[in-house]
Design a protein that fits this description.
single chain; alpha/beta; 60s Ribosomal Protein L30, Chain: A; 5-stranded mixed sheet; two-stranded antiparallel sheet; 3 helices; 29% helix; globular
């Protein structure tokens, strides 16, 4: 049986350490059988890898890549929680897209996270989701994604 770690490696993905919280909250909470992952930003080496707003200089392709990086950081938090090989189902993703009022392609951006979860976890990676436009996000990033993951014993 292929492990998630091996699958990530075969995909050329290296998980970072789970990012520490930027304020007074925890990066994840386990409430059996659910693992709630706080919103993850598109950070690489502790710094924003993307900045700006969709519809104002950030392309859909860059937004998609930012959402994918958020998903990688969510998977890093699942690993930090000691649950990477026990993911039963990705239950829900919440995607927040910093965008102009005219921008309406939020789902195309958040697909960057959704697609990665299906690539990594297969059918168990299919999930319910919200893709919401917001006026700004921390550190000026274009996307933030949070998750609810069902864990097996």
């Amino acid at each position: 049986m292929e492990t998630i770690e091996r699958k990530l490696s075969a995909m050329g993905l290296v998980l970072p350490s789970g990012a520490p919280p930027a304020a007074n909250y925890l990066p994840f909470i386990r409430s059996h059988p659910l693992l709630f992952i706080s919103g993850q930003l598109p950070l690489r080496d502790g710094r924003p890898a993307f900045a700006g707003r969709l519809g104002d200089g950030v392309s859909i392709e860059d937004g998609y890549a930012a959402a994918r990086l958020c998903a990688i950081n969510i998977i890093a938090q699942i690993k930090a929680a000691g649950c990477l090989e026990r993911v039963h189902r990705v239950v829900r993703l919440g995607g927040f897209v910093s965008a102009t009022t005219e921008f309406t392609d939020h789902p195309k951006v958040v697909n960057g996270a959704s697609d990665l979860f299906v690539e990594v976890f297969g059918e168990a990676g299919r999930h319910a989701r919200a893709a919401v436009g917001v006026s700004s996000l921390p550190f000026g990033v274009p996307v933030e994604v949070d998750a609810v993951i069902e864990i097996t014993n």
